[in-house]
Amino acid sequence: MVKIHTNDPVSRVVTVSMSGLVRELARIEPKLISLEGKAGTAVTAQVKIFPVAVPDFNITDTTAKDGKHIDFSLEKQKEGAKPVFLLTVRNKKESPDRFFDIIIMTTDTTPKREIRVRVFGNILP
């Protein structure tokens, strides 16, 4: 809610509220990445990112919040006539452990919006 102060003697303060729907920028399937497997083996997972609010945006930058235990790549493809991004994430951890990270993708939309994908790792002995 926002209060607007006026010089009107009858309505000195007017309270205004605003509501609306926010469309998601993209649909992510699956919503998160789970890397689970034995230490020393290749553990890889993928997610697909489908543009929704803006039909054909581009991802201009991709980073990991931590990045110590994962490698990743992003590829723009087509499914039919529609664009889709394929994010592939690989485990780098060589010893048994659990970890968490977030991959942050910056888009070329105006205003700039980010897509975040959570990554959970469970590397077994």
Features:
125 residues; four-stranded mixed β-sheet; Immunoglobulin-like; 10 strands; mainly beta
End-to-end CA span: 54 Å
Strand order of the largest sheet: 3-5-8-7
How much helix is in the residues?
Answer: under 10%
CATH superfamily: Immunoglobulins
The stretches of 5 or more residues where confidence is low (pLDDT under 50) are none
Q: What string, H for helix and E for strand, traces the elements in order?
A: EEEEEEEEEE
Largest sheet: 4 strands, antiparallel
CATH class: Mainly Beta
**Total domain units:** 1
Q: Which fold name corresponds to the CATH topology?
A: Immunoglobulin-like
What is the total tally of β strands? 10
Instruction: Tell me which CATH architecture applies here.
Output: Sandwich
Main structural class: mainly beta
